[in-house]
Amino acid sequence: MGARKRISAEARKEAQKTQYFAKLRNVPTSPRKMRLVADMVRGMEVSRALGVLKFSNKEAAARVEKLLRSAVANWEQKNERKAEDGETLYISAISVDGATTLRRMRPAPQGRGYRIRKRSNHVTLFVDTLSKNDSQK
After folding, report:
1. How many other β-carbons are positioned within 10 Å of the β-carbon of residue 77?
2. SS3 letters for the chain?
3. What is the pLDDT of residues 35-49, one digit of tens each?
4. How many angstroms separate the CA atoms of 56 and 62, rounded?
5. Alpha carbon of 52 to those of 62, 69, 76, 121, 130: distances in Å?
6. In the predicted model, is pLDDT for residue 137 greater than 60?
7. Domains in the chain: ranges and CATH
8. Which pTM value belongs to this model?
9. N or C end: fewer C-beta atoms under 10 angstroms in the chain?
């Protein structure tokens, strides 16, 4: 690894130590369906977002709820205190990216084959405190 690449990688690692996030990789749901759920909770407070996800009918909502709980646990681990101790956590960023696509063939009339694309996605969720965000503005 070159010196410039190593320096930028170390800087990226240092920047991630101050951020609180969780990643969910290779989810066998199309990114479009997952983005609908991500858009429902983007920017919400954590307690409200957990309620919205719990009572949503979408299958992807259960996966995002579990990911949100993981991000909150990561925040608690790094700060060595509980999330309910006076500070309000909120979802600062959530992104859904496409992952690998499984390509399959389905028999079709007259000897043809139709292509089936089984899509998957990666979800990254960042949480932050409102008090920290207000002091930066």
Report:
1. 10
2. CCHHHHHHHHHHHHHHHCCEEEEEEEECCCHHHHHHHHHHHCCCEHHHHHHHHHCCCCHHHHHHHHHHHHHHHHHHHHHCCCCCCCCCEEEEEEEEEECCCEEEEEECHHHCEEEEEECCEEEEEEEEEHHHHHHHC
3. 999 999 999 999 999
4. 8
5. 10, 13, 22, 21, 20
6. no
7. 21-106+113-131 (3.90.470.10)
8. 0.84
9. C
Average pLDDT over residues 85-104: 91
Please calculate the CA angle 66-130-74 and round it to the nearest 5 degrees. 35
Q: Six-digit token pair at 35? A: 């983005």
Here the tokens at position 31 are: 């990114």
Through-space distance between the first and last CA atoms of the chain, rounded to whole angstroms = 38
Task: Find the length of the chain.
Answer: 137
- 77 is written with which tokens? 């681990």
